[in-house]
Design brief:
The complex is a heterodimer of chains A (367) and B (402). Chain A has ten helices and three strands. Chain A has 367 residues and is mainly alpha-helical. Chain A folds into two domains: 118 residues, PX Domain (2-Layer Sandwich); 183 residues, Arfaptin homology (AH) domain/BAR domain (Substrate Binding Domain Of Dnak, Chain:A, Domain 2), CATH 1.20.1270.60. In chain A, strand 1 and strand 2 form a beta hairpin. The longest helix of chain A has 67 residues. Chain A is globular. The relative contact order of chain A is 0.10. With 402 residues, chain B is mainly alpha-helical. Helices cover 68% and strands 8% of the residues of chain B. Chain B has eleven helices and three strands, in the order αβββαααααααααα. A three-stranded antiparallel beta sheet of chain B has the order 1-2-3. In chain B, helix 8 runs antiparallel to helix 9 and helix 9 packs antiparallel against helix 11. The longest helix of chain B has 81 residues. Chain B is elongated. The chains are: A mainly alpha (367), B mainly alpha (402). At the A-B interface, helix 8, helix 9 and helix 10 of A face helix 8 and helix 11 of B. Chain A: This is SNX7 protein. Chain A: Keywords: Coiled coil, Protein transport, Transport. Chain A: InterPro entries: AH/BAR_dom_sf, PX_dom, PX_dom_sf, PX_SNX7.
Chain lengths: 367, 402
């Protein structure tokens, strides 16, 4: 109970203390303490004069006080998810926002409305919302709440509010400018380490993703050849007398092998491939987060430089600087905490995924 | 099989050596020679071991031996030689005759050939075969002196020639169909197996990439590092294991190939029967027509149209003396023909009897060998799975420690 209230009163202006961080971990590991349950299902196709699109049903069950009801059911389309993600990024530039499934996979040559594609996307969207729900900060984000609860027209009108396109563009311009100005100086050691880590990690995870896909392909090719192998033996048994039973036996075994291979492949597609893909996206996100942190720091640094040069209007400036310093501090801490959390998660994910792969292989060989 | 050579003598093809020499056309060539070692087996295990005798032979000499045996014992299903050129290869296997793995598998095949001949109740007693094992020089001349090449019916060489046989032994016709089916199905199986092996190789080898990337990744991880590193090691082990597995499978493929070629030998026996039957029927036909002619001349009636009959009608009858002479010649021919037919019939029946006996022996051998081969294949697969289980159990442990 105590841990819950502590988290509930969490506000961005207070740097996180180690003890509350531990509580956050517990918050994730113990699903009984969860008070927000989200499912994404039931994809439906909608046809209008202009376009065809898919909506997904988002069901939310919660015991939280700030929610008016305990159950919500809304329909959302991919665009809405994109909107949510960008709002979260805006509000928390140095927090790690979970990845969304890509818009349209051209490489995989998957039909935009194929069942496979829709199902993969649905699963990814489900994961996306749940990761947000599990995040100690993001879960209380106002836009998130609106996303989960608002009716379609409410959401559209809410979307239209908020900083307009121009101000958003302004932000981007400033961001680019500051990054060009070399925001890398004054970067605390921790973040340089993170950057280096992310570069290598990103490389490796991309490789793993490719390898896993390659294995999947090789297995499929293997399966195709194996499908012929059993029948050949059955054919042979037709012309034999003494050996016919043995041959039929072998044919039966080979067919079982085929089925076991199919199971293995399905497990790969279900568990390993999506996770690897998610972390490929994550690595991109993290690089982005690190860049944004650098930007914020860059802002601070430039103001500090300006102060050093001007030496006038100390009070105003130092207040501004103070604010910026806070901002940087917050950003840094948020990132650090989130980073650790992310790594924990990643570790756990990788562990369970690969263990799963191992188990599947064991099952395969045992069969 | 009480007196067969295999029981009295140990035969092995123990080594293979690359050699260069000049061939019949005086052109330099490289070939492989195989060492045949023989040793008499003492009936008591206590007795001193007899000395090992040995000589070198090359593949072409084995071929000569086999050709001799096929011609000399047409009713026997003669064991086949291992393939001349590597066939049914999957991509990692070389098709080169000089490749050491191919040479090794051929060595085993040649040994198997010799052992099969030595265990055959009829073939093992052949003197040329014995000389092949014991006498290095002058053997070729000895074989050629038997004049077996003259006996070889050139008609058999025309593989697709069909003989219109009216009354073949039904069993042989069925057998021929069977041998065709066997050839076709084993070829098909070997092709599919080669493709499956190729793909399996791919699956295993790509896992090796895991090993490399895990190892690189572990360098940047703290808690996960050890787990990743050791898991990567297991992936490497997994990827490497496929080489041995597939090599073992090649031996299984060779066992199947032997029966692919045996099907050919079986077919040859059937065709020899066909040929004999054809000759028999031709001879019988010839005899019948001669008898008819004789009758016509004797009675003066023309039952069937013949040019001679017509011409004699047109150009005048023959004299009685001429007719008598003709009849006499025909009667002699008929006599000869009847004797020939009798002996041919006898030959044919003997052939069918002894051939069928050998075919029954062959069928039993085939069933036994194929069963064993399939069992060994299953054992191989089980062993492969056990290895897989071991690797992935280890990997799982490493992963869970991450």
């Amino acid at each position: 109970d105590a841990s819950l209230t502590e988290v509930n009163s969490f506000s961005p202006s207070v740097p996180i203390s180690p003890s509350s961080m531990i509580n956050q971990y517990k918050f994730e590991d113990a699903p009984e303490l969860r008070d927000l349950f989200i499912t994404v299902d039931d994809p439906e196709s909608h046809v209008t004069a202009i376009e065809t699109f898919i909506t997904y049903r988002v069901v939310t069950k919660t015991t939280r006080g700030e929610f008016d009801s305990s159950e919500y059911e809304v329909r959302r389309r991919y665009q809405d998810f994109l909107w949510l993600k960008s709002k979260l990024e805006e509000a928390h530039p140095t927090l790690i926002i979970p990845p969304l499934p890509e818009k349209f996979i051209v490489k995989g040559m998957v039909e935009r409305f194929s069942d496979e594609f829709i199902e993969t996307r649905r699963k990814a969207l489900h994961k996306f919302l749940n990761r947000i729900a599990d995040h100690p900060t993001l879960t209380f984000n106002e836009d998130f709440k609106i996303f989960l609860t608002a009716q379609a027209w409410e959401l559209s009108s809410h979307k239209k509010q908020g900083p307009g396109l121009l101000s958003r563009m302004g932000q981007t311009v400033r961001a680019v400018a500051s990054s060009v100005r070399g925001a890398v100086k004054n970067r605390p050691e921790t973040f340089t380490e993170m950057n280096n880590y992310m570069e290598t990690f990103s490389q490796k995870i991309n490789l793993l993703d490719k390898i896993a896909h390659r294995i999947y392909k090789e297995e499929r090719d293997y399966l195709n050849e194996m499908k012929e192998y059993g029948p050949v033996h059955t054919l042979w048994s037709a012309s034999e007398e003494g050996v016919a039973d043995s041959l039929k036996g072998v044919a039966g075994c080979l067919d079982r092998c085929c089925r076991a291979t199919e199971k293995r492949m399905a497990a790969l597609a279900e568990h390993l491939l999506p996770i690897l893909h998610e972390y490929v996206l994550y690595s991109e996100i993290l690089m982005g987060v690190l860049r944004r942190r650098d930007q914020i720091q860059g802002e601070l640094d430039s103001k500090v430089d300006a102060l050093a040069n001007k030496k006038t209007e100390n009070d105003l400036f130092s207040e501004e600087i103070g604010k910026l310093e806070d901002k940087v501090e917050r950003a840094n801490n948020a990132l650090k905490a989130d980073w650790d959390r992310w790594k924990q998660n990643m570790q756990w994910d990788m562990r369970s995924t690969f263990t799963n792969v191992a188990e599947n292989n064991l099952r395969y060989y045992e069969e | 099989m009480e007196d067969c050579l295999a029981k009295k003598m140990e035969i092995t093809v123990s080594e293979a050596e690359k050699r260069t020499g000049r061939n019949a056309m005086n052109i330099q060539e490289t070939y492989t020679a195989y060492l045949i070692e023989t040793r008499a087996v003492e009936s008591q295990s206590e007795g001193p071991c007899a000395p090992v005798e040995s000589l070198w032979r090359r593949y072409s000499e084995f071929e000569l031996l086999r050709n001799y045996l096929s011609v000399t014992y047409p009713h026997i299903v003669v064991p086949p030689l291992p393939e001349k050129r590597a066939d049914f290869v999957w991509h990692k296997l070389s098709a080169d005759n000089m490749d050491p793995d191919f040479v090794e598998r051929r060595r085993i095949g040649l040994e198997s050939f010799l052992l099969r001949v030595a265990s055959h109740p009829v073939l093992c007693q052949d003197k040329i075969f014995y000389a092949f094992l014991m006498q290095e020089s002058g053997w070729k001349e000895m074989v050629n002196e038997t004049g077996f090449q003259l006996k070889a019916d050139s008609r058999l060489k025309a593989l697709n020639a069909t003989f219109r046989v009216k009354n073949p032994d039904k069993r042989f016709t069925e057998l021929k169909h069977y041998s065709d089916e066997l050839q076709s199905v084993i070829s098909h199986l070997l092709r599919v197996r080669a493709r499956v092996a190729d793909r399996l190789y791919g699956v295993y080898k790509v896992h090796g990439n895991y090993g490399r990337v895990f190892s690189e990744w572990s360098a940047i991880e703290k808690e996960m590092g050890d787990g990743l590193q050791s898991a990567g090691h297991h992936m490497d082990v997994y990827a490497a294991s496929i080489d041995d597995i597939l090599e073992e499978e090649e031996h299984y493929a060779d066992q199947l190939k032997e029966y692919l070629f045996y099907a050919e030998a079986l077919r040859a026996v059937c065709r020899k029967h066909e040929l004999m039957q054809y000759d028999l029927e031709m001879a019988a036909q010839d005899l019948t027509s001669k008898k008819q002619q004789c009758e016509e001349l004797a009675t003066g009636t023309v039952r069937t149209f013949s040019l001679k009959g017509m011409t004699s009608k047109l150009f005048g009858q023959e004299t009685p003396e001429q007719r008598e002479a003709k009849i006499k010649v025909l009667e002699e021919q008929i006599q000869e023909g009847e004797e020939q037919l009798k002996s041919k019939n006898l030959e044919g029946r003997d052939f069918v009897k002894s051939a069928w006996a050998d075919i029954e022996r062959f069928k039993e051998q085939k069933n036994h060998d194929l069963k064993e081969a399939l069992i060994s294949y299953a054992v191989m697969q089980i062993s492969m799975c056990k290895k897989g289980i071991q690797v992935w159990t280890n990997a799982k442990e490493c992963f869970s420690k991450m």
